Structures are given as C-alpha cells and as structure tokens.
Amino acid sequence: MKPKVTMIAWNQNDNYVVTAVNNHLLKVWNSSTGQLLHDLVGHADEVFVLETHPFDSRIMLSAGHDGNIFIWDITKGTKTKHYFNMIEGQGHGAVFDCKFSPDGQHFACTDSHGHLLIFGFGCSRPYEKIPDQMFFHTDYRPLIRDSNNYVLDEQTQQAPHLMPPPFLVDVDGNPHPTKYQRLVPGRENCADEHLIPQLGYIATSDGEVVEQVIGQQTIDQEEQGLEPSILDGMIRQLQQQQDQRIGADQETASSSLQNGEGTPRRG
C-alpha cells in the first residue's frame, strides 16, 4: 500500500509536526530538520483528528475511525491516556472530531452515532442536569430545492435559516420539558406556551405511524383554522414587504426606460 498522509498538525510551540498516515501510524517530526523522531503505534484505522494542547507543547490528541482516542506525549513518543468508544450492542463508534477547551482541562469529541463525549478533570455532576439524548427536531427533516436551486425545508417551504428556532427532542422525537427548550438560542425568553411544540403523526419507511414534533404550522393548517406560529407570520410578512419593494423597483425601472432615460437608477 502506498503511504498517504491523512492529517497533519503542529504542536503548541511549533517544534514538532505530527502526521497521520493511512497505514494507521502517527509520525512525529522535527519541524526544523525534518528528522523523524517517533512512530506512535496504537490506532487500527485511519486517523482524521489531530489536536494540539492549547498550552502544553508536549501533548497531542489523536482520534480515528477505529473508535480510539489517544493522548500522546510527543516529546517522548509515549501514550499518556487511551479511551475506546465502545457502544453497547453496536460495536465501536468512529470519532469524527475533537477539540480542547481553552484552559486545556477538558476536551470534547463527536462520533458517528451522534454522541458528544466530554472528557476532563473533576466531577461530572453538572452534566447530569441535562438529558442523555438531545436532538433538534429538524435534524432529520427532508430538504428540497426550488426552481432557483435554493434549499428549502420540505414541510414549511422556507429556507432553513429563516425557520423559527428548533425544539429539543429525544432520539424518538419526543419533546423535552420547557426548561430544556429555553437552552435553544432564540427561545431564552419565550413564554411557556411558546415552548410547547406541536406534535403530529408521520409514517416511517417501514409503514409504522409514529408521533413526532412538527414544530411549525403550515399554510394548509392555517386554512383549516388552526392558530399559526407567530414567527412564521412575521417571516411571511417580511417576505411580502420584500416582494412589494422589488415590484416597486421594477415598475420604476420600466417607466424610466419608456421615458427615454438611460440606465435606471434606484432611488
């Protein structure tokens, strides 16, 4: 197999360069002379995560698709800590990304199963206040493209960035209590009634009908006399105002051309 570099990182003081190679080895190089100093052995699959410690020049973190997370002392070429991301009943979870906290006391990783793994010193009690499963209800909603090739949410026909803030749900789509909904940016100061999501029934690919959060009212629901979402109404009002401005500009441009004027200018 022809060796191929999959990732590269400098250490904190730039004295060393670490490369991940597709033969599952990590190589530590002297950045001034190019001399190979250490081969770091431990990974069993390709590595796409190399993170240097924010202030300790000796420390480098690596993580890969084999589910292994290593903390290395690259000056000695030795393993300091090791964690294997085993998921009960599902084998291991590939680690896709890792980042150190600014103080270097913690690091967080994300894996292929949608887990956020938090490592660090001290007690884990603060993290016990939140549910084990937290997803946005829009995470797996289908998207479509309009005639201009812009992406829209299939259900509401709106651009995703214009949609109201999503709701927090568990892995089965059940909404969390209102105290957790306030953790979502944009919902911090909402009244309690606005933190209770609307539920609907959808059919899965297996034909099973399940209850899930739908989040916003659609135009069809409004026609049926149901109360629309306040944010949806504001968004549509802004869109109408924008359409009116564009229409007025086009009328001004056409009248200027009919009067024999040159290139029309917007006021």
Question: How would you describe this structure to a colleague?
Answer:
- WD repeats lie at residues 1-39, 40-82.
- InterPro entries: Bromo_WD_repeat, WD40/YVTN_repeat-like_dom_sf, WD40_repeat_CS, WD40_repeat_dom_sf, WD40_rpt.
- There is one protein chain.
- This protein is of the alpha+beta class.
- The chain folds into 2 domains: 5-120, 7 Propeller (Methylamine Dehydrogenase, Chain H), CATH 2.130.10; 135-213, no CATH class.
- 14% of the residues lie in helices and 33% in strands.
- It is built from 3 helices and 19 strands.
- The protein has helices at 178-181, 219-223, 230-258; strands spanning 5-10, 16-21, 26-30, 36-40, 47-52, 59-64, 68-73, 78-84, 86-87, 91-92, 95-100, 106-111, 116-120, 135-136, 143-145, 151-153, 168-169, 199-203, 209-213.
- It has a 4-stranded antiparallel β-sheet with strand order 1-2-3-4, with no helix packed on it. Strands 5-6-7-8 form a 4-stranded antiparallel β-sheet, with no helix packed on it.
- A hairpin with a 5-residue loop joins strand 11 and strand 12.
- The chain is extended, with a radius of gyration of 26 Å.
